[in-house]
Queue: 3 jobs
Job 1
Amino acid sequence: MTALQTTTPAWANAPLRLRAARRLSTSAVARRLFLDRQVDFWLGQLHPAWSLTELRARVVQVIDETHDVKTFVLQPGGAWPGHRAGQYVPVEVEIDGVRVRRCYSIASAPGDARVAITVKRVPGGRVSGFLHDHVRAGAVLGLGAPAGDFVLGDAAGSGLLLLSGGSGVTPGMSMLRELAARGEVRDVVFLHAARSAADVIFRDELRSLDRAHRGLRVILRLDDEALAGPLDEAELRARVPDFAARETFLCGPPGMMDAMERLWAGAGARDRLHLERFVAARPRAATPTEGVTLRLSRSGRSLPVGPGTVLEQLERAGERPAYGCRMGICQTCRCRKRTGTVLDVLTGAVSSEPDEEIRLCVSVARSDLDLAL
């Protein structure tokens, strides 16, 4: 008797091959992840700023700018993507076993081999105080990708006004350094307001640049020398008569920012004014919410909602969501809201869309919320 022989069609084994390929793919991914972690570990042993999975930088110099401002010169690892003048960078440090992130404007020009951030000590500031008190040359900081749209763009080094107050000088300094490096300082006014000469960040460099470039006019407006109060319209018109015709980049304390924004709007030149705030604009009033619950879908926790933003609610409950600027700019605290209604305290917009991204630091609950946390 001849045995019956059957031939299995090629398509019949396709699911088996597919499953085998998936197992092989999963195995390869696992091996790659394991090897990457091993490589990452040994890279860290050779140089603390080297990593395949994280962006890090070694502090190579700490410069005392004023009594409460320091510049940290950083040597980033090879993964640093580069920045544009005027952008900021998230900086991460570990404090008491907890990773904390803040955003700081980059002071160095884009073409520099090293990256500099200039940090003012904020009274009670957790990260600024840590950087000032504990970070020295040789320390390693975590970095995020540079971001922000407060950049020169198509604005050339002519017909330009860089206007700043206090530590708001940092992004403008990055722009001025870039223009100087490119030899494009043709018609630039740099007006900086500070409490006194001792409080002027980059004072010596600004004076040196002023002497070196015919197309630059540096104006240091000092409170202790001014006859009146803060910089106002009359003084600005006297110092920079053509301010409304200049492409202007403004960064400073809230009072100064608000006053200048009104002035540019009144002059019909609001479209030529670019703003970078390092303190959140005054939020719109938010009515208290009672009987509302915040549910964290991943952990299964349910929290009663009290006053404040969603970020503040989470922190009071012992959660540690990632955040940076705390004013709705850096996007570090973005989180998916599965269901519920929130109010944006900066814009006043109310949204009930399901499965949308919200910024925890500027969102207030207006109903029960379900977050992907």
Note: The domain at 293-371 is CATH 3.10.20.30 (Ubiquitin-like (UB roll)).
Job 2
Amino acid sequence: MIEATYIATRPEGSPEALGESIAREQSLEILPELIPAELGKRFLGHVLRTERIDEERWLIRIAYPPVLASAQIGQLLQLLYGNVSFYPRIRLVDLSLPESLTDQFAGPAAGIAGIRRRLDVHGRALLLSVLKPRGSSPEHLAGVAERFALGGGDVLKDDQNLVETTFEAFKARVSACAEAVDRAREVSGRQCLYLPHVAGSGADLHARLEWVAERGLPGVVMCPWILGMETAACAARSHGLLWLSHPSGAGSFTQSVDHGIAPALVFGQLPRLAGADLTIFPGTGGRITLGRSGAAIDSSIVTALTSPFHSIEPSLPCTGGGKAIAQLPAVVAALGVDCAIVVGGDLLKRGENMEIATRRAITTLKAHGKSSAAGMLR
């Protein structure tokens, strides 16, 4: 069974009745007297436990038949938090899935191990940077890309705001940046993964993805909380591309303390199931954060992305939100080496000195990778 745990804060009326209402609303969404016995047996969710946490909060755990997920990540999200998202002060905080269901999801195509093999980088955290802002010429962005790659940067992504109206403009910009990264590789001998941002819908989205794949680029950036999780998952899979899940739009689920969905699910378990090879989340210490007990939330997201999860490969946690180079040692100490650290503005502001700053950042990550390994051996 699919087991979902909700926290109800200051529930209106009986918590037990609320649990029954959620179970029915999310599974069959029909009046109790209209549920035929046979359909109820096969499809109706049922409450496993209702428990008081404190004076204001109740834990409600509900089991749903796996068939209701329809082997689709979008439908799984609908099942867990569709209509109940309109209920006041209900938060989805935990999820347990049977292996029979997770086996129906492809998960990441490469995951952490595959990304490290492509880069030939092991034993340290990865450095990820961003091409921005929108309105910059392809030549300017290509120059930024080349300096980052020459400095030994690992992963370079388009900003989510880099979106061209025409396909030709998209191809011109992405080609310029990809060629810059290729030139840097010929000089340095090191690989840098460049991931352009794709947006849109229907034939236009797939045309861009098909072109990216034909161009030989490894993957793309997509915003699943804007495009739709199912759309992003299917789009990347159908073109054999890796994809990075960008968190844009997800704050509406995570920022309230008593409503929405827990960050470990939004930035961890759900995109991992959907096949995101890399997942960005706004970690502690940047200009955008998840607030409250930040370090504990960061750790829960990393655990959701990297811990054993049936046959699903781990996704690479990418902690962002406005990190600075000076924060690299602290991030590695908190999250370990199996992560990427997003440093955008703090590298971009170096201008012509970005290559040097990138090289120093990589040196820092190498040093702290060794110290982390030594600490584990002790």
Note: The chain has two domains: 2-102, 111-377.
Job 3
Amino acid sequence: MPIYISSKGLQELKEEVIDRKTIQRRAIAERISAAKDLGDLSENFEYHEAKEEQGLNEARISQLENMIHDAVIVDETSGGELIGLGATFVVEVGGLDKTYTMVGSSEANPLAGKISNESPIGVAFFGKKVGELVEVSTPSGSISYRIKDIH
């Protein structure tokens, strides 16, 4: 399954893999070694905690490698007529202007204005153009957005 991501986001994933394979693996191995030196492993909390951290780190490395393998680079678009992946757009909601960027789910960060193309709000905006009114259903009711600009 493709993972839609910006070139910057892909670079960040690659950097995280390198960090986890080098720095974090080494630090965890040192913690395991130090814990082994404490003696009886059956009741050694430090050892079991370090082994659990090792498993979580290896699982994250595997997840990141799969994401990198399946990555489809989405470049930022500018001046487009329709909202799509990579588009930054301005909407009016409740009398205020808000700026969003449509990104793949792996880069989504709603607090930073990066909305996933798979989220309910992302699905509602996808393929819309300037001037359109977009209704988004939320648990607290429906919210109306007017698309003001795509850049």
Note: The longest strand covers residues 141-150.
